[in-house]
């Protein structure tokens, strides 16, 4: 009488138990025996606790996905696009037994063991990016034939402030307004002042230096956030000292090598620059004919070409000064010019905050330096100091030679040891003894024979000097005029 009624097994449970017979669990026993279920109380399982904790998360996820669907539909309507028909399926409520068949079937016990089915996330196609319309013909803000009228003003290029917003409009092609595209165009330009080293992006080594003060992460974020989603080439090594071209010249041999390398690389340099701009601007939607016009008449390619001409002219000036004199390299005017301009260009490189400012400031500096013949007050002052050092060195060498050889030797072979060692002679009579006997200076204006013919004065000057000295021995004082007259008469008779 006290035995429980026979256990009745459902079809589904029978199917499960037939495959793998096992001992019924406590939960199944409680369901089958109402008395046991009423008298036995157990704590919720770990799975039930986890399901209760994650249920709010699924509710919030469903709300956020529905909100995102509504926003995407509104955006699609505004852009005249067909809204996506892919909806978000309703989340499966906790403890529900009416479940869709996904990979087989779900039943109440499956829900109890494994929890609800995972939610299906919405799949939305991102809206198409509308590429701005690019012009097909380059107009250019500055005519090709126009010269730069800002020479002498290092803060301007073609009367435009290099720190103003207008400089980007003048340098860039039309319809280029995004910072990521503008920075990418500057980054692909060649750093001429790095010659004879690498001038294009990607050069340099791990040597530390400034020039990376601009936030590269910000630049990368701007690039990734742009509409075209094209990653620009960030040239973050522009400020390193190993990119300083004049710093590679340390001797007369490296000067000659740099001079040759600059002219050797000219064709390859501008050809590679054209390829880079063709590839980059073509990806931005510009036509090949437009890019050709821009490379020919655009302001940025133009200042790159002029920077190359001015930079090679500077190296040519240094070569000319070196070949014009026989001075040693360490004390030559060529080294003075090299050091001054190298120091100024290095200051620009290590203190600018972007590749753009490096290109513009280098162009302005080389433009103004060429206008002055690559000579400035600093170079002039250093040349004066160099000349003073040379003169002092020559004086020291002369004193050293005198100390070794001594002064003029006295005695035999030096009859004028007590006389004035000055080599001066009268230009009329060419006789020093006559002027010494008369006590006169060795100039024509006071020469005793200045009224006589030059040929006779040169021939008779010795006789006049000897007779005047003999006639004036002791207390005798005979005028020079009488002596000259007597010698002249006797000369005429003979």
From TrEMBL:
- Region spans: Disordered: 1-44, 69-155, 193-213, 400-427
Cite the record's Pro residues compositional bias ranges.
116-125
Compositionally biased spans, kind Polar residues: 13-25, 75-100, 133-149
The Basic and acidic residues compositionally biased stretches are: 400-423
Name recorded for this polypeptide? Uncharacterized protein
Q: What is the species of this protein?
A: Cylindrotheca closterium
